[in-house]
Protein backbone atom coordinates (compact mmCIF):
# COMPACT_ATOMS: atom_id res chain seq x y z
CA UNK A 1 0.00 0.00 0.00
CA UNK A 2 1.33 3.42 -0.96
CA UNK A 3 0.39 6.98 -0.02
CA UNK A 4 0.34 9.40 -2.95
CA UNK A 5 -0.45 13.11 -3.16
CA UNK A 6 -1.12 14.82 -6.49
CA UNK A 7 -2.04 18.49 -6.74
CA UNK A 8 -1.27 22.07 -7.60
CA UNK A 9 -1.14 25.27 -5.55
CA UNK A 10 -0.40 29.00 -5.58
CA UNK A 11 3.31 28.29 -5.99
CA UNK A 12 2.98 26.07 -9.05
CA UNK A 13 -0.12 27.29 -10.90
CA UNK A 14 -1.61 30.69 -11.85
CA UNK A 15 -5.09 31.54 -10.63
CA UNK A 16 -6.72 30.87 -14.04
CA UNK A 17 -5.54 27.25 -13.80
CA UNK A 18 -6.35 26.87 -10.10
CA UNK A 19 -9.91 28.10 -10.53
CA UNK A 20 -10.53 25.45 -13.23
CA UNK A 21 -9.44 22.60 -10.94
CA UNK A 22 -11.45 23.40 -7.79
CA UNK A 23 -14.02 21.13 -6.15
CA UNK A 24 -16.98 23.05 -4.75
CA UNK A 25 -19.31 21.69 -2.04
CA UNK A 26 -21.85 20.69 -4.69
CA UNK A 27 -19.50 18.31 -6.52
CA UNK A 28 -17.03 17.14 -3.88
CA UNK A 29 -18.94 13.99 -2.83
CA UNK A 30 -19.44 12.88 -6.42
CA UNK A 31 -15.76 13.55 -7.10
CA UNK A 32 -14.70 11.41 -4.12
CA UNK A 33 -16.86 8.52 -5.34
CA UNK A 34 -15.47 8.84 -8.84
CA UNK A 35 -11.89 8.96 -7.57
CA UNK A 36 -12.45 5.94 -5.29
CA UNK A 37 -13.62 3.94 -8.31
CA UNK A 38 -10.33 4.45 -10.14
CA UNK A 39 -8.14 1.33 -10.50
CA UNK A 40 -5.82 0.87 -7.55
CA UNK A 41 -7.41 3.58 -5.38
CA UNK A 42 -8.39 2.17 -1.98
CA UNK A 43 -8.93 5.46 -0.12
CA UNK A 44 -9.16 9.12 -1.14
CA UNK A 45 -9.41 12.62 0.36
CA UNK A 46 -9.72 15.81 -1.71
CA UNK A 47 -8.51 19.15 -0.35
CA UNK A 48 -9.70 22.13 -2.40
CA UNK A 49 -9.22 25.80 -1.44
CA UNK A 50 -8.68 29.02 -3.35
CA UNK A 51 -4.92 28.43 -3.18
CA UNK A 52 -4.64 24.68 -3.71
CA UNK A 53 -6.31 21.50 -4.97
CA UNK A 54 -4.79 18.24 -3.77
CA UNK A 55 -5.87 14.62 -3.78
CA UNK A 56 -4.53 12.24 -1.15
CA UNK A 57 -4.84 8.56 -2.00
CA UNK A 58 -3.98 5.17 -0.56
CA UNK A 59 -3.05 3.02 -3.56
CA UNK A 60 -2.73 -0.73 -3.84
CA UNK A 61 -0.93 -0.55 -7.18
CA UNK A 62 1.21 1.82 -9.24
CA UNK A 63 -1.08 4.22 -11.09
CA UNK A 64 0.32 7.66 -10.26
CA UNK A 65 -0.17 9.08 -13.76
CA UNK A 66 -3.84 8.11 -13.76
CA UNK A 67 -4.47 10.33 -10.73
CA UNK A 68 -3.41 13.45 -12.63
CA UNK A 69 -5.35 12.24 -15.65
CA UNK A 70 -8.46 11.72 -13.54
CA UNK A 71 -8.05 15.22 -12.07
CA UNK A 72 -8.04 16.71 -15.56
CA UNK A 73 -10.79 14.50 -16.98
CA UNK A 74 -13.14 15.23 -14.09
CA UNK A 75 -12.90 18.93 -14.93
CA UNK A 76 -12.88 18.38 -18.69
CA UNK A 77 -9.23 19.41 -19.13
CA UNK A 78 -6.48 17.51 -20.95
CA UNK A 79 -3.69 16.19 -18.75
CA UNK A 80 -1.16 18.01 -20.94
CA UNK A 81 -2.78 21.32 -19.99
CA UNK A 82 -2.35 20.89 -16.25
CA UNK A 83 0.65 18.53 -16.00
CA UNK A 84 3.24 21.38 -15.99
CA UNK A 85 1.61 22.71 -12.80
CA UNK A 86 1.14 19.40 -10.96
CA UNK A 87 3.35 18.04 -8.20
CA UNK A 88 3.38 14.52 -6.85
CA UNK A 89 4.56 13.10 -3.53
CA UNK A 90 4.80 9.49 -2.42
CA UNK A 91 4.86 7.88 1.03
CA UNK A 92 7.29 9.83 3.26
CA UNK A 93 7.18 12.94 1.04
CA UNK A 94 3.37 12.74 0.96
CA UNK A 95 3.15 12.54 4.76
CA UNK A 96 5.58 15.43 5.21
CA UNK A 97 3.70 17.56 2.67
CA UNK A 98 0.35 17.08 4.42
CA UNK A 99 1.89 17.99 7.77
CA UNK A 100 3.46 21.13 6.31
CA UNK A 101 0.20 22.13 4.63
CA UNK A 102 -1.83 21.61 7.81
CA UNK A 103 0.64 23.63 9.90
CA UNK A 104 0.49 26.57 7.48
CA UNK A 105 4.10 26.16 6.29
CA UNK A 106 3.01 25.81 2.65
CA UNK A 107 0.48 28.66 2.73
CA UNK A 108 0.54 31.97 0.89
CA UNK A 109 0.76 33.63 4.32
CA UNK A 110 3.28 31.65 6.39
CA UNK A 111 1.65 30.06 9.42
CA UNK A 112 -1.94 31.09 8.64
CA UNK A 113 -4.33 29.04 10.81
CA UNK A 114 -7.35 28.73 8.48
CA UNK A 115 -5.84 25.89 6.44
CA UNK A 116 -6.05 23.42 9.34
CA UNK A 117 -9.82 23.88 9.49
CA UNK A 118 -10.00 23.34 5.73
CA UNK A 119 -7.97 20.12 6.01
CA UNK A 120 -10.27 18.88 8.79
CA UNK A 121 -13.31 19.71 6.68
CA UNK A 122 -11.84 17.83 3.69
CA UNK A 123 -11.22 14.75 5.82
CA UNK A 124 -14.70 14.87 7.38
CA UNK A 125 -16.27 15.10 3.93
CA UNK A 126 -14.25 12.07 2.79
CA UNK A 127 -15.26 10.14 5.92
CA UNK A 128 -18.93 10.94 5.35
CA UNK A 129 -18.57 9.80 1.73
CA UNK A 130 -16.87 6.55 2.88
CA UNK A 131 -13.85 7.26 0.71
CA UNK A 132 -11.42 7.38 3.64
CA UNK A 133 -10.38 4.24 5.50
CA UNK A 134 -7.88 2.96 8.04
CA UNK A 135 -4.70 4.34 6.43
CA UNK A 136 -5.85 7.88 5.58
CA UNK A 137 -7.87 8.00 8.79
CA UNK A 138 -4.74 7.29 10.79
CA UNK A 139 -2.71 9.77 8.72
CA UNK A 140 -5.14 12.67 9.08
CA UNK A 141 -5.70 12.12 12.80
CA UNK A 142 -1.92 12.04 13.20
CA UNK A 143 -1.75 15.27 11.19
CA UNK A 144 -4.26 17.07 13.41
CA UNK A 145 -2.28 16.06 16.50
CA UNK A 146 1.00 17.31 15.01
CA UNK A 147 -0.57 20.60 13.88
CA UNK A 148 -1.85 21.16 17.41
CA UNK A 149 1.63 20.49 18.80
CA UNK A 150 3.21 22.94 16.33
CA UNK A 151 0.70 25.64 17.32
CA UNK A 152 1.36 24.97 21.01
CA UNK A 153 5.14 24.56 20.94
CA UNK A 154 6.13 27.23 18.39
CA UNK A 155 5.21 30.85 17.67
CA UNK A 156 4.21 30.06 14.07
CA UNK A 157 0.79 31.71 14.42
CA UNK A 158 1.42 34.26 17.13
CA UNK A 159 2.61 37.21 15.06
CA UNK A 160 0.54 39.00 12.40
CA UNK A 161 2.02 39.00 8.90
CA UNK A 162 -0.74 40.72 6.94
CA UNK A 163 -1.45 44.45 6.98
CA UNK A 164 -5.06 43.93 8.07
CA UNK A 165 -4.08 41.52 10.85
CA UNK A 166 -1.29 43.84 12.01
CA UNK A 167 -3.72 46.76 12.16
CA UNK A 168 -6.23 44.83 14.25
CA UNK A 169 -3.48 43.50 16.52
CA UNK A 170 -2.31 47.03 17.24
CA UNK A 171 -5.90 48.04 17.96
CA UNK A 172 -6.14 45.20 20.49
CA UNK A 173 -2.99 46.46 22.19
CA UNK A 174 -4.51 49.92 22.63
CA UNK A 175 -8.03 48.72 23.45
CA UNK A 176 -7.67 45.50 25.42
CA UNK A 177 -11.40 44.84 25.11
CA UNK A 178 -12.88 45.45 21.65
CA UNK A 179 -16.47 44.62 22.58
CA UNK A 180 -17.07 48.21 23.73
CA UNK A 181 -15.41 49.81 20.70
CA UNK A 182 -16.69 51.01 17.33
CA UNK A 183 -14.60 50.65 14.18
CA UNK A 184 -14.95 52.88 11.13
CA UNK A 185 -13.60 51.16 8.02
CA UNK A 186 -13.02 53.46 5.04
CA UNK A 187 -13.05 51.60 1.73
CA UNK A 188 -14.49 48.21 0.75
CA UNK A 189 -11.58 46.38 -0.86
CA UNK A 190 -9.86 43.14 0.13
CA UNK A 191 -7.72 44.66 2.89
CA UNK A 192 -10.71 46.36 4.53
CA UNK A 193 -12.71 43.14 4.26
CA UNK A 194 -9.88 41.25 6.00
CA UNK A 195 -9.73 43.92 8.70
CA UNK A 196 -13.49 43.63 9.19
CA UNK A 197 -13.20 39.87 9.47
CA UNK A 198 -10.42 40.07 12.07
CA UNK A 199 -12.29 42.71 14.07
CA UNK A 200 -15.47 40.65 13.99
CA UNK A 201 -13.58 37.52 15.13
CA UNK A 202 -12.17 39.47 18.07
CA UNK A 203 -15.60 40.66 19.16
CA UNK A 204 -15.67 44.29 17.99
CA UNK A 205 -18.72 46.13 19.31
CA UNK A 206 -19.80 47.93 16.12
CA UNK A 207 -18.57 48.24 12.53
CA UNK A 208 -19.25 51.18 10.20
CA UNK A 209 -18.20 50.84 6.56
CA UNK A 210 -17.71 54.02 4.53
CA UNK A 211 -17.22 53.80 0.78
CA UNK A 212 -17.68 55.91 -2.32
CA UNK A 213 -20.03 53.23 -3.71
CA UNK A 214 -22.70 52.78 -1.08
CA UNK A 215 -23.87 49.40 -2.43
CA UNK A 216 -20.41 47.85 -1.92
CA UNK A 217 -20.32 49.32 1.58
CA UNK A 218 -23.72 47.75 2.34
CA UNK A 219 -22.62 44.33 1.04
CA UNK A 220 -19.55 44.33 3.26
CA UNK A 221 -21.23 45.79 6.36
CA UNK A 222 -24.06 43.24 6.21
CA UNK A 223 -21.55 40.39 6.56
CA UNK A 224 -20.47 41.66 9.96
CA UNK A 225 -23.67 43.11 11.41
CA UNK A 226 -22.51 46.65 10.66
CA UNK A 227 -23.99 49.56 8.73
CA UNK A 228 -22.84 51.50 5.69
CA UNK A 229 -22.34 55.20 4.94
CA UNK A 230 -21.02 57.22 2.03
CA UNK A 231 -17.66 59.00 2.19
CA UNK A 232 -19.40 62.34 2.52
CA UNK A 233 -21.08 61.15 5.73
CA UNK A 234 -17.78 60.45 7.52
CA UNK A 235 -17.70 63.82 9.41
CA UNK A 236 -21.12 63.05 10.91
CA UNK A 237 -20.13 59.60 12.19
CA UNK A 238 -16.39 60.00 12.91
CA UNK A 239 -16.91 60.85 16.57
CA UNK A 240 -18.51 57.41 17.08
CA UNK A 241 -15.32 55.67 16.01
CA UNK A 242 -12.68 54.47 18.45
CA UNK A 243 -10.82 52.71 15.64
CA UNK A 244 -10.41 54.00 12.08
CA UNK A 245 -8.83 51.85 9.36
CA UNK A 246 -8.66 53.37 5.89
CA UNK A 247 -7.68 51.84 2.56
CA UNK A 248 -9.07 53.50 -0.56
CA UNK A 249 -7.72 54.27 -4.00
CA UNK A 250 -8.35 58.00 -3.62
CA UNK A 251 -5.58 60.23 -4.99
CA UNK A 252 -6.33 62.78 -2.24
CA UNK A 253 -6.81 62.39 1.54
CA UNK A 254 -10.36 61.51 2.56
CA UNK A 255 -9.83 62.51 6.18
CA UNK A 256 -8.32 65.86 7.16
CA UNK A 257 -6.99 67.37 10.37
CA UNK A 258 -9.98 69.71 10.83
CA UNK A 259 -12.53 66.89 10.59
CA UNK A 260 -10.62 64.83 13.15
CA UNK A 261 -10.28 67.82 15.53
CA UNK A 262 -14.05 68.29 15.44
CA UNK A 263 -14.62 64.61 16.14
CA UNK A 264 -12.22 64.71 19.11
CA UNK A 265 -14.15 67.60 20.64
CA UNK A 266 -17.39 65.64 20.34
CA UNK A 267 -15.67 62.66 21.94
CA UNK A 268 -14.33 64.85 24.78
CA UNK A 269 -10.86 63.81 23.68
CA UNK A 270 -11.30 60.09 24.18
CA UNK A 271 -8.38 58.43 22.27
CA UNK A 272 -8.77 57.37 18.65
CA UNK A 273 -6.64 54.74 16.96
CA UNK A 274 -6.14 55.27 13.22
CA UNK A 275 -4.43 53.13 10.60
CA UNK A 276 -3.84 54.55 7.13
CA UNK A 277 -3.09 51.59 4.86
CA UNK A 278 -3.57 53.52 1.61
CA UNK A 279 -0.82 54.64 -0.78
CA UNK A 280 -1.14 57.57 -1.36
CA UNK A 281 -2.37 58.38 2.14
CA UNK A 282 -6.05 58.60 3.01
CA UNK A 283 -5.45 60.49 6.27
CA UNK A 284 -3.53 63.76 6.35
CA UNK A 285 -0.14 63.37 8.05
CA UNK A 286 -0.89 66.34 10.33
CA UNK A 287 -3.61 64.28 12.03
CA UNK A 288 -0.82 62.40 13.77
CA UNK A 289 0.21 65.59 15.56
CA UNK A 290 -3.10 65.80 17.43
CA UNK A 291 -3.27 64.78 21.07
CA UNK A 292 -5.28 61.61 21.73
CA UNK A 293 -4.69 60.34 18.16
CA UNK A 294 -2.63 57.22 17.55
CA UNK A 295 -1.93 57.29 13.80
CA UNK A 296 -0.08 54.48 12.04
CA UNK A 297 0.80 54.32 8.34
CA UNK A 298 1.42 51.29 6.15
CA UNK A 299 5.18 51.81 6.68
CA UNK A 300 4.74 51.56 10.45
CA UNK A 301 2.80 48.35 9.99
CA UNK A 302 5.38 46.99 7.56
CA UNK A 303 8.00 47.18 10.26
CA UNK A 304 5.72 45.12 12.51
CA UNK A 305 5.02 42.67 9.69
CA UNK A 306 8.69 42.24 8.73
CA UNK A 307 9.67 41.59 12.33
CA UNK A 308 6.80 39.17 12.79
CA UNK A 309 7.62 37.41 9.53
CA UNK A 310 11.16 36.85 10.78
CA UNK A 311 9.67 35.47 13.98
CA UNK A 312 7.41 33.13 12.01
CA UNK A 313 10.31 31.96 9.84
CA UNK A 314 12.25 31.05 12.97
CA UNK A 315 9.15 29.26 14.27
CA UNK A 316 8.81 27.51 10.90
CA UNK A 317 12.28 26.01 11.36
CA UNK A 318 11.19 24.64 14.73
CA UNK A 319 7.94 23.40 13.18
CA UNK A 320 9.85 21.57 10.44
CA UNK A 321 11.90 19.76 13.08
CA UNK A 322 8.67 18.61 14.75
CA UNK A 323 7.25 17.60 11.38
CA UNK A 324 10.37 15.64 10.45
CA UNK A 325 10.16 13.65 13.71
CA UNK A 326 6.47 12.87 13.30
CA UNK A 327 6.90 12.01 9.61
CA UNK A 328 9.39 9.33 10.59
CA UNK A 329 7.06 8.20 13.36
CA UNK A 330 4.21 7.67 10.91
CA UNK A 331 6.54 6.02 8.40
CA UNK A 332 7.45 3.53 11.13
CA UNK A 333 3.77 2.69 11.58
CA UNK A 334 3.34 2.45 7.81
CA UNK A 335 6.30 0.09 7.47
CA UNK A 336 4.93 -2.03 10.31
CA UNK A 337 1.89 -2.77 8.13
CA UNK A 338 4.19 -4.65 5.72
CA UNK A 339 5.15 -6.99 8.58
CA UNK A 340 1.54 -7.74 9.52
CA UNK A 341 0.96 -10.00 6.53
CA UNK A 342 4.22 -11.82 7.13
CA UNK A 343 3.38 -12.41 10.79
CA UNK A 344 -0.11 -13.64 9.90
CA UNK A 345 1.30 -16.00 7.28
CA UNK A 346 3.91 -17.36 9.69
CA UNK A 347 1.27 -17.95 12.37
CA UNK A 348 -1.02 -19.74 9.90
CA UNK A 349 1.85 -22.01 8.89
CA UNK A 350 2.72 -22.77 12.54
CA UNK A 351 -0.92 -23.40 13.42
CA UNK A 352 -1.27 -25.84 10.51
CA UNK A 353 1.83 -27.71 11.70
CA UNK A 354 0.33 -27.82 15.21
CA UNK A 355 -3.01 -29.14 13.98
CA UNK A 356 -1.36 -31.81 11.77
CA UNK A 357 0.87 -33.07 14.57
CA UNK A 358 -2.00 -32.95 17.08
CA UNK A 359 -4.14 -35.16 14.82
CA UNK A 360 -1.31 -37.70 14.57
CA UNK A 361 -0.86 -37.66 18.36
CA UNK A 362 -4.61 -38.23 18.87
CA UNK A 363 -4.51 -41.18 16.46
CA UNK A 364 -1.67 -42.68 18.49
CA UNK A 365 -3.86 -42.45 21.58
CA UNK A 366 -6.68 -44.20 19.69
CA UNK A 367 -4.26 -47.00 18.78
CA UNK A 368 -3.40 -47.56 22.42
CA UNK A 369 -0.31 -45.48 22.93
CA UNK A 370 0.07 -44.06 26.43
CA UNK A 371 -0.62 -40.33 26.98
CA UNK A 372 3.04 -39.84 27.88
CA UNK A 373 4.18 -41.38 24.58
CA UNK A 374 1.66 -39.31 22.58
CA UNK A 375 2.71 -36.09 24.29
CA UNK A 376 6.39 -36.89 23.76
CA UNK A 377 5.66 -37.53 20.08
CA UNK A 378 3.72 -34.25 19.78
CA UNK A 379 6.45 -32.20 21.47
CA UNK A 380 9.35 -33.69 19.50
CA UNK A 381 7.63 -33.67 16.13
CA UNK A 382 6.23 -30.13 16.49
CA UNK A 383 9.62 -28.81 17.62
CA UNK A 384 11.37 -30.46 14.66
CA UNK A 385 8.82 -29.14 12.16
CA UNK A 386 8.98 -25.57 13.53
CA UNK A 387 12.80 -25.54 13.54
CA UNK A 388 13.47 -27.37 10.29
CA UNK A 389 13.08 -24.53 7.78
CA UNK A 390 14.79 -21.81 9.89
CA UNK A 391 17.65 -24.20 10.77
CA UNK A 392 18.19 -25.12 7.12
CA UNK A 393 18.21 -21.44 6.09
CA UNK A 394 20.64 -20.46 8.88
CA UNK A 395 22.93 -23.34 7.93
CA UNK A 396 22.86 -22.27 4.28
CA UNK A 397 23.53 -18.62 5.25
CA UNK A 398 26.58 -19.74 7.22
CA UNK A 399 27.79 -21.80 4.26
CA UNK A 400 27.38 -18.81 1.93
CA UNK A 401 29.00 -16.37 4.37
CA UNK A 402 25.83 -14.24 4.55
CA UNK A 403 26.65 -12.53 7.81
CA UNK A 404 23.69 -10.16 7.64
CA UNK A 405 21.25 -13.10 7.59
CA UNK A 406 22.94 -14.69 10.58
CA UNK A 407 22.70 -11.41 12.49
CA UNK A 408 19.04 -11.06 11.49
CA UNK A 409 18.33 -14.62 12.68
CA UNK A 410 20.02 -13.88 15.97
CA UNK A 411 17.86 -10.75 16.41
CA UNK A 412 14.64 -12.50 15.33
CA UNK A 413 15.02 -15.62 17.46
CA UNK A 414 16.88 -13.90 20.34
CA UNK A 415 19.51 -16.61 20.59
CA UNK A 416 23.15 -16.53 21.54
CA UNK A 417 25.31 -15.92 18.50
CA UNK A 418 27.52 -19.06 18.48
CA UNK A 419 28.42 -19.22 14.79
CA UNK A 420 31.69 -17.28 15.25
Helix/strand layout:
Layout: E1 2-9, H1 15-18, H2 28-36, E2 41-48, E3 52-59, H3 64-74, H4 79-82, E4 87-90, H5 92-102, H6 114-128, H7 134-153, H8 163-174, E5 182-186, H9 190-201, E6 206-211, H10 214-223, E7 227-230, H11 234-237, E8 243-246, H12 257-266, E9 272-276, E10 293-297, H13 298-366, H14 371-400, H15 403-413
Parallel strand pairs: 5-6, 5-8, 6-7, 8-9, 9-10
Antiparallel strand pairs: 1-3, 1-4, 2-3
Characterize the structure shown.
By secondary structure, the chain is of the alpha/beta class. The chain has three domains: 2-153, Glutamyl-tRNA reductase, N-terminal domain (Beta Polymerase, domain 2, 2-Layer Sandwich), CATH 3.30.460; 163-302, NAD(P)-binding Rossmann-like Domain (Rossmann fold), CATH 3.40.50; 369-413. Helix content is 55%, strand content 14%. It has 15 helices and ten strands. The strands form two sheets. A six-stranded parallel sheet has the order 7-6-5-8-9-10. Strands 2-3-1-4 form a four-stranded antiparallel sheet. Helix 6 runs antiparallel to helix 7 and helix 14 (371-400) packs antiparallel against helix 15. The chain starts with a strand and ends in a 7-residue tail after the last helix. 33% of the residues are buried.
CATH class descriptor name of the largest domain: Alpha Beta
CATH fold description of the largest domain:
Beta Polymerase, domain 2
Which structural class is indicated by helix and strand composition? alpha/beta
* Overall residue-averaged pLDDT value: 90
Question: Which range best describes the helical content: under 10%, 10-25%, 25-40%, 40-55%, 55-70% or over 70%?
Answer: 55-70%
Give the end-to-end Cα distance, rounded to a whole number of Å.
Answer: 39 Å
Tally of helical runs = 15
The major beta sheet can be summarized as:
6 strands, parallel
SSE string, helices as H and strands as E: EHHEEHHEHHHHEHEHEHEHEEHHH
What is the CATH superfamily label of the largest domain?
Glutamyl-tRNA reductase, N-terminal domain
Number of domains: 3
Coarse morphology? elongated
Write out the strand line-up for the largest beta sheet, numbering strands in chain order. 7-6-5-8-9-10
* Total number of strands: 10
Low-confidence stretches: none
Amino acid sequence: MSLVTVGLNHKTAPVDIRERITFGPDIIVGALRSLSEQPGVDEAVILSTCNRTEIYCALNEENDDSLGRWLGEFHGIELETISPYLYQHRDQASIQHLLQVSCGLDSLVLGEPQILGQVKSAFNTASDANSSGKLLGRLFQHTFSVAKQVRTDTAIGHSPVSVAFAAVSLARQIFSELSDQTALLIGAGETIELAARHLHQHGIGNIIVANRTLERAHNLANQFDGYAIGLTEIPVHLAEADIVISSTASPLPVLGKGTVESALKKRKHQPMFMVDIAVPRDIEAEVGDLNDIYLYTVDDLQEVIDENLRSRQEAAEQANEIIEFHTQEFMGWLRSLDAVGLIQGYRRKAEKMRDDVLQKALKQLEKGKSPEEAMQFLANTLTNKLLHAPSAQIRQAGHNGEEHLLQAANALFQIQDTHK
